[in-house]
Amino acid sequence: MENGVRHAAPNSSGASDLPEVDLSLVRGDLGFHLQRRVFLIPAAGMGIVRRAVIFAAVTWLPLALWAILTGRAFNGTGDDTLVAHFGIHVRCLIAIPLMVVAEGVAQNLMPPLLKYFVDSGLITDETLPDFRRQLARMSLLRDRALPWVLMLGATLAWSTTRALLGDAEDVVWMNHGTHIADISFGGWWFVLVIRPLFVVMLLAWLWRACLLFILLFRIGKLPLALVPSHPDRVGGLSFVERMAFIFSPVAFAISAVIAASFAHEVVYHGASAMQMKTLLIATAALISVIFLLPLLPLAMPLGRLKRRAIFEYGSLVAHHDRLVHERWILHRDIGNPEILDAPELGPVADIHAIYDAVAHMRSVPLSKMSIVAIVVPAAVPMLYVAALQLPLTAVLGKVAKALI
After folding, report:
1. pTM
2. Which of 54, 199, 248, 333 could bond to 155 as cystine, CB 3.0-4.6 Å?
3. What percent of the chain stands above pLDDT 90?
């Protein structure tokens, strides 16, 4: 099903007849429907590989053929060739296909992860109607045309303005002069096809990141059945961290395009990669922050849970240990209090372990896995720029030293 939620048969445990929930970040929006209308997306499935190949071919091949026919593919001085402009190749052959691949990743990850809110017991029978209502609201927001109209308008305005100004590095080399009438076929192809497609896909993914942020914010406001002593240290929400992998291809795509621009400056304009290191690090950090932000709304219920649980479990442990102290140290007759015989609490060491689990809860649903899922794709292209002027072993050594 494309929108909202769907009903399914009772689960195998037979505990209750709970409907299965399903929401996609990509199926159902205006971009999806436009692509299906022109048969890019088949009736069944997402056509990820086919679309990635088609987009790469449509954007890169016409420009490459024009460059070959006009002698601008390899012949020229300095960066006056197609080969020298890394950003064009990266946009067409890496970034745009990867953002299509990310749609497939999102489609495979989101529905089962949302369903796990129910399967894990975080969403109970009482909160399930509200949970489904939030998913339905999110599907309506995802399907609105206005965000896509704004994205398309902003993209066309930006692309044409840059063409009129005539100062874009990736366009100037293709033209015969600085006037708009001097823009060649290659220049127009970049201005009207390559750049707009890349920018629209980029804005679409930023919008989807916003959608996930809003969805998790609304879910976080529900009375989730979080478990303070859960061994995952986030009340049972560790599965949410896997949503970071949705944005891994997008983070790499954006970082690769920016790194290609930096690499062009280093190779053809004498820029120093070492002098740019602050910019490289800041760029990778900014990309990482943008795509980790969607997971942060769940920090609010986790923070509330930890603050409350510290007092509740602290009182429980104090009461338990006080009775143990009175019985075995002060040798008082305290009777047979149930708390000392409760099998779920166990001996002193066990109840202390429960309290330690609560005390060491993380207030943010981010782990090494989720951070690596975003930081590594964002950092690898920047490392390539640094490696242009530094031995790769030295770069890797510095990275390893920083991490260890």
Report:
1. 0.86
2. 199
3. 56
